[in-house]
Amino acid sequence: MIDAVSGSMVVLVAAVVLVATRVRRGGGRVMQPYDPNPGERFDHLWGYADTRFEFLDGRTVRLSGSRYPLAGSPLPHFVPFVEDMLGVPIGPEHARELSPPRQAPEAVRNEGFVNALRELAGSECMRDDDRERLVHSHGQLSVDEVYRVMTGHVPGRVVDLVAYPESEAQVAALTRLAVKHDVVLIPYGGGTNVSGALQCPSGESRMIVSVDMRRMNRVLNIDRENSRAEIEAGITGAELEARLGEAGLTCGHLPDSVEFSTLGGWIATYASGMKKNRYGNIEDIVLDVTLVTPSGSIHTVPINPRSSVGIHPRHLALGSEGCLGIVTRAVLRLRALPETCRYASIVFPDFGSGLKFLRAVRDSEVTPASIRLAGNQEFRLGQSLSHAEGGGKRLVGRLQKFYLFRLKRFDLQRMVAGTLVMEGSREEVRRQWRTLSRLLAAHGGLSGGAEAGQRGYQVTFAIAYIRDFMSAFDVLGETFETSVPWDRVEPVVAAVEAELHRLCAEYGVPGRPYLSYRVSQSYDTGACVYFTLGFSGRGLDDADRIYQDIEKRLRQVVLDTGGSLSHHHGIGKVRQGFVHRVHTETTIRALRALKREIDPGNIFAAGNNVFGQHKPE
User: Fold this and answer.
1) Based on CB atoms within 10 Å of each CB, which residue in 142, 265, 372, 571 is the most buried?
2) Of the residues 270, 279, 343, 530, which is catalytic?
């Protein structure tokens, strides 16, 4: 709540904010953050082919299409913000054509396997054209994968065939054929991985087959009485929520990539979603997993709420990153769709005040479904994505700025903002908001209203398209995340920021580097800090190598300052050199021994995590 300050202008601002917070108090309609209808995917870039950032003129951009609330309207503030942050000009005249390779390296063929697979599943369940092979040979790691592919770089090793199984029986038969013919299998879900996990090992001489699971997207059964469902692993998050929603249910797992990532991918990477406070991380939602391995199927019988039977088989699949087998289905815990959903936005004079608020919320009796705190740079990026507004909204904006900057003495260069999503019964949501308002006032924060909160939540799903727009200007960028104890959050952020500026000066990076961060998830013992890094590579020789050197050093700084190697993206290959800093040698030997037992021929040879041969950093 806004604290009481005399003056009719402030009262007007407060009234505007309080009215805005009632967007859905009576069960009113809330705009969907993304269009749930399927569409054509871009071959190598993020998202849908009908959605791109594009110039309307030399200074104004818009997001094309109509899939997101952000789309369609001019965004006049974005280009000036980017130029101010990076210190380099951004305009149509500075863009270069991005052109992915049209040809893949010659495929390795194992004719015995190909013929047997054709007999098993038919020709329609496999493809070996160059387009499909290239698309299935990388994820969405910005510089190492997407930037290099879009600037014409052909990976040294790509998959040789793509298989599209349609049932668990086909997956099991496909795995047996791979064992018989000594063929490598790499599971493929939505292709959103940002850890390099889909890259083919460069020294692999055997035939490599990408196993695309997206035809296995069925809801096998819904058990309402026991609040669970059995789901095939190739279903995307958007498909899953739409089908469960028809039955008035949800699993509650909503990562930023929910439109494209799959259930199997969430399990294989130990994923986390935006509403984990209410529904849990993926390990809290999954009751059981079926993992098909070269030695047979791993799962539990029967499925119970909890069982003390030793090391649970589902933990072999969680975080396995495609190295032990293929996740084919899972049993998920379900919840009823909430009676109501309420959004809110909050602002604080500085990051430290916002962190204290988050900690106080964790110590309170309320649990909002989602609570995120954006640092100053990310807050200002969000502001730059605002549409050109009419007179009424401009007036509200002026009043809000007067209140914040003149009366409350907030500094635009230091203030931070957060978004809240509260779900449950109407009484539960009202109770949450009362407690949150009290804590907000106690920590120097102000309410920014429901409209801003809803918009901040919705922008999350469209903001990923910025990366591909910026790549045309040789702006190299990536996200990386860590989990940090509460008392190390600010030291980690400060150390990363200082080291980034030092390294960019050392490498002669033009302009200024961009670093933003947000606390995306919080726990009793700490929080997830999610960084976005970017800088201009214009004029640099070997810009992608410089980026890799800088990012690697920043990961070292995070570990040195008390952060984890990853919170929810996994290890893959990009973090592989650091696993010796987070696992003991005994742990690594035990995991490798497990793999030798269930995959003695190394059929699942993606080489991620501790199963690769990367030397320690």
Assistant:
1) 265
2) 530
pTM for the full predicted model: 0.92
- Among the listed residues 511, 392, 426, the one whose alpha carbon sits nearest the alpha carbon of residue 85: 511
Mean pLDDT of the chain: 91
pLDDT tens digit sequence for 555-570: 999 999 999 999 999 9
CA distance 140 to 46: 7
SS3 content of the chain, % helix, strand, coil (to 5): 40, 20, 45
Cβ of 604: how many Cβ atoms within 10 Å? Answer: 27
Tell me if 318 sits within 8 A of 592, measured CB to CB. no
DSSP 459-509: HHHHTTHHHHHHHTTTEEEEEEEEEEEGGGHHHHHHHHHHHHHHHHHHHT-
List of domains in the chain: 8-24+341-462 (3.30.70.3450), 224-291+305-336 (3.30.465.10), 465-569 (3.30.300.330)
Max CA distance (Å), the chain: 83
Nearest CA to 168 among 103, 230, 259?
230
Q: Is the confidence at residue 271, as pLDDT, over 50?
A: yes
pLDDT mean over 8-13: 30
Fill in the amino acid letter for 521: Q
Question: Is 507 a known active-site residue?
Answer: no
For residue 210 the two structure tokens come to 């990408």
